[in-house]
Amino acid sequence: MSARAPLPRWVDIALLPVLNVVLAFLIGGLIVLAVGQNPLQAVGVMVYGAFGYGTGVGYTLYYTTDFIFAGLAVSLAYHAGMFNIGGEGQAYLGGLGVILIALALNGLHWTVMFPLMIVFGALFGAFWAFIPGYLQAKRGSHIVITTILFNFIATSVMSYIITRILKPEGVNSDESAPIEAISRIPRLGEFFSFFGRSPANLSILVAIVALVFCYWLIWHSKFGYAMRALGHNPVAARYAGISGTRMIIITMAICGALAGMVAVNNVGGVQGRLILNFVNGAGFVGIAVAFMGRGHPIGVALSALLFGALYQGGQELAFSMPGITKEMIVTIQAMVILFTGAMGDMLRIPLMRLFDRRATAGTP
Amino acid sequence: MQYYTDLILILDSTVRLAVPLLLACLAGLYSERAGIVDIGLEGKLLGSAFGAATVAAVTGSAWLGLLAGIGVALCFSAVHGLASINLKGNQTISGVALNFLAAGLTTFLGQAWFQRGGMTPQLGNDQRFTPITLPFANELADVPIIGGLYSELISGHNILTYFAFIAVPLTAFVLFSTRFGLRLRAVGENPKALDTAGMSVTRLRYQALIITAILVGIGGTYLSVAQSSGFNNNMSAGRGYIALAALIFAKWRPWPALLVCLLFGFLDALQFRLQGIDFPVIGQVPVQAIQVLPYLLTIILLAGFIGRAVAPKAAGIPYTKER
Amino acid sequence: MASTTSSQRLETAAAQAPAIELRGINKHFGAVHANKDIDLVVKRGTVHGIVGENGAGKSTLMSILYGFYSADSGEILVDGQRHDITDSRHALALGIGMVHQHFMLVENFSVLENVVLGAEDSPLLGKTLSKAREQMKALARDYGLEVNPDALIEDLSVGQQQRVEILKALYRGAEILILDEPTGVLTPAEADHLFRILKTLRDEGKTIILITHKLREIMAITDEVSVMRQGAMVATMTTSETSPAELAEAMVGRRVLLQVEKGSAKPAEVRLEVKNLVVADDFGIPRVKSVSFSVRAGEIVGIAGVSGNGQSELLEAITGMRNIREGAIFLNGKPLALTGDDAAADARAAGIAHVPEDRHRMGLVTGFQEWENAILGYQDKYGSGPALDIGGAKAAAREHIGKFDIRPPDTELKTANFSGGNQQKIVLAREMERDPDVLVIGQPTRGVDIGAIEFIHNEIIRMRDAGKAVLLVSVELDEVRSLSDRIIVMFDGHIVGEADPATADEGELGLLMAGVTHDGKAATVGTTPDVKTVTERRLMEMNPQQISDKDAEP
Amino acid sequence: DPAIIYDGGGKFDASFNEAAYNGAEMYKKETGAGYGELEISSDAQREQFLRQFAERGYSPIITPGYNFVTALESVAPEFPDTHFVILDAVVDLPNVRSVLFKEHEGSYLAGIMAAMKSESGKIGVVPAFNLDLLEAFACGYKQGAKSVNGDIEVLETYIGSGFDAFNDKPKAVEVAKSQLDQGVDVVYQVAGGAGAGVLQAAADAGKFSIGVDSNQNHLYPGSVLTSMVKRVDVATYNAMMDEKNGNWSGGTIVLGLAEDGVGVAFDENNASIVTDDMKAAVEKARQDIISGAVEVHDYRTDQSCPA
Ligand SMILES: Nc1ncnc2c1ncn2[C@@H]1O[C@H](COP(=O)(O)OP(=O)(O)OP(=O)(O)O)[C@@H](O)[C@H]1O
Ligand SMILES: Nc1ncnc2c1ncn2[C@@H]1O[C@H](COP(=O)(O)OP(=O)(O)OP(=O)(O)O)[C@@H](O)[C@H]1O
Ligand SMILES: [Mg+2]
Ligand SMILES: [Mg+2]
Question: Membrane-crossing residues (chain B) (predicted)?
Answer without folding.
Answer: 7-30, 50-83, 95-114, 159-176, 206-225, 292-311
